[in-house]
Design a protein that fits this description.
11% helix, Porin, 146 residues, globular, mainly beta, eight-stranded antiparallel beta barrel
Amino acid sequence: MKKLLILSVFVLGLTQLSQAQELGIRFGDVTGGDVALDAVFSAGQFSMIHADVSFGNNGVGIDALYDFIYRPLGDAPLNWYLGVGPSLYLGNVVLLGVAGEIGLAFKIPNAPVSLSADWRPTFYLIENTDFHAGFFGLNIRYVFGN
């Protein structure tokens, strides 16, 4: 049953990632390991969905954050973002929590590449109540359509 649930979540995640506007890799502290498949979906002019799927530590980690603030910093191709969303780890234990996110994103001019760095403090509610403040990451993504 557990393997079927993990497989279903993985297939659903890949379906959504195939429609991403930015797709790449996240390095650093990730819910399920040290590397994740990273995607960004537009949710309006100044908001986005930032999703990750990672494999490691004998499980799967899934984060889906709604960044309700996604604004430019001055005239440079640099944006800052702030958001919140669920964080799930399916492995030997099941962890469910709420993650916050604050970061900076840089779209390389005249190239379809986006670089970003963010911090994701996470408060786990299930299976254990715990707070993790050390989730930092570097994201490198290909930008579709630009």
